[in-house]
Every structure is written in structure tokens, then in C-alpha cells.
Amino acid sequence: MEKGLKNNYFICFSTKSVASMKFLLVLLLLIQTNNLFGNDSIQNPVHFAIKPQYGFILSHSSRIEHLTNTNPFGVEAELTWLRIKEKNFQQCNCFSKTGISFLYINYANPDIVGSSYNLIGFAEPFLLRRKTFLLSLRMGVGATYLDKIYNEKDNPTNLFFSTHFAFITHIDLNAYYKINEQLSLMAYAKYNHISNGGTKSPNYGMNFPTVGLGLNYTCQGAFNFPKYEKNKYEPSWFYKISAFGTIKTIEKDSLNSEMSKFIFGVYGLVGKTISKLNGLSLGVEYLNDGAAKEKIERQQLGLDHQQVSFLVGHHLLFGQFDFSQHWGTYIYAPYKIRNFYQRYTISYSFYKNFRIGATLKVHGDWADNFNLLIGYSF
Questions:
Q1: Whole-model pTM above 0.85?
Q2: What is the pLDDT of residues 297-313, one digit of tens each?
Q3: How many CB atoms lie within 10 A of CB 105?
Q4: What are the structural domains, with CATH classification, of the chain?
């Protein structure tokens, strides 16, 4: 296993799931913006923003330390909808933004690391609102194209990326200062991660914070945030069952060629909301790891590749979106690297109680496997 992920909330994917991930990203964006327009008397304002940024690369392994002495720079162009309709407000008892952005990042190392081109979807609830000042938290996930990747002969030192297509996730803190009725100055601090989710090695991935100042333009001009009564919060129980799967590439060795193996699993959760936006849960997970089975057979270890785990976690509930982070403890796992792991999941509820999404299993600072997910909530 190669290291490639800081112990944070990250989601990544491989070339073998590029088409599926693009479909998932587009579907999530279409669902999220489906109700932004209509015949309501209140319309959700459209915003445009341009956001230059500058940052640095974190070193989470001695093997990639020689690649972290540069300062990435780039620019982001985004289209957003300010969700001020009452039905949007009642989803989290707050106003928020959703949107899409295109982010270009140059890693200031053109021969080895190159640049990335990122298409991102995001949700952004406001934490603080004043007459001329807004503070918000943004969570984004998207598809990435990398123009420089690892090659055994031509580019052997780029241990960050081994696939042209990967996945980016980020979490941002944004501050808006109103200049006039249409223009606002933005200041932002971002924590970004790009990786292929451990589906092909080397996969150390990249963690790179960036900061910047930008401009946000409101197409509709002057508007006021409506005043709505907040729904009274009442705790509630929730029950979820999910199935997930992916294909993972096992690299060649002196006796075996490169192979692709299927990983699939299922987990069930029981949880309770503790606020409008937060919930806690417990669960059990079963995983059938075909990649682990192949490694066991190559090493002639005679161990079982199946795993059963206990989960405890937190859910950030934002409308139909569920951002969850779980701590997993192995109950049965004869072949395992460590005793604990983290599972990060983003899912969207649609058509009654069905859910689609993506989930990533992480052992501390490296990604084990990324999976597409389908589930049902009771």
C-alpha cells in the first residue's frame, strides 16, 4: 500500500471509474440545483466569482518531501446560486450557496508535477451574516485531470499521482465584504486534496492549502435576505443500509502481470440527529476485498481476505446531502494492515429514500479504496 491521504475528509477515484464519477458529479449538481428556479415570488440570485489563489504543499511522507518545496498557484472561476427561498432555508435553518467551479492549479514544477484542471461542485452554508459582511464554510468535491503523472521510465519521481484522472475534495472558509449592491470582495482559505483513492500505485496524493482574494458579482443587483421562522428542532432516529464497490489495480511484480480486482461491501447504520445539521451513528460493515485476496495468494499467506468491522461516526446533514465520517474497528480481519480505519462518505437522497454517493476507506494517512455507493434510508 502507498501512502496518499492525510487523516481528513477526502474522496478520490481511479481511471477505471472516471466515467462513473463524472456521471455522479453531474447528477449531484443537477439534483442540487433542480429547485433553484421556478415561479416562486422569491428567486435565488445568481453569482459569478473569480478567485486567484496561492499556497504550499504539505509533506506527509519522507518519500515526497523533495516535491513539496514549491508554491502552487492558480485561479478559480465559479457560478453559484444563493439559496434564499424558504424551502431552501428550512433544510438547515440557514441560508446557503450551491454552485460549480473550474479550478486551474499550476504546481510550479512543470517537468515532474505539472498542473491540474478541476471541475468541482460545492455546498456553502453561511455561518455569520451582517449588513456588509458574510462568513461561510464550503465543502466541495470534483473531477481532476492531471497533465503529469508517474511513469517508471519518464517520470519516476512523481509519487503524488499515477493516473491522469483523479478526484479533488476541499473545505474552505470564506469571508465576503460588500463593496456595493453587486460587487463583494472575497477572502478565502482552502484545504485541498487530490488523489486516486489508492486504486493504483504510487498514490501518495497531494494536500495543498491555498489562500487568496477575489471578487464576487451578483447579477440581480440589490436584494435582501428574507426573514423566516426557524423550524423547531426535534431529535429523530435514522437507519441506513448501503452497498458499495470499486475496481482496484494490483501492480505487476517479477512473477505476475498487472491485474484489476473487484472490491465490494455493505454496511448498516443506526443513528440519531443531535441538531438540525448533525447526527451520530453506530454500524457494522462487511467487506470482500478482491485486491487483498490477490495479494494473499501472491504471498501464499493462507489468510481470509474478508473483513467485518464496527463503525462509530458523525453525520453533517445539509438538505438531502449527508457528509459522514466513521471510525472503523476490525472485528474479523485476518489480513489487515492496521487495527483501525476511517470511512468518509458523501451521499444524496433522491426518489423517496434511495441514496447515491461515494465512499473512501482510509488507514491513517493513506487511502485504501474508493467506492461508488447506493443505499436506502429507513
A1: no
A2: 999 999 999 999 999 99
A3: 26
A4: 15-218 (2.40.160.20), 237-377 (2.40.128)
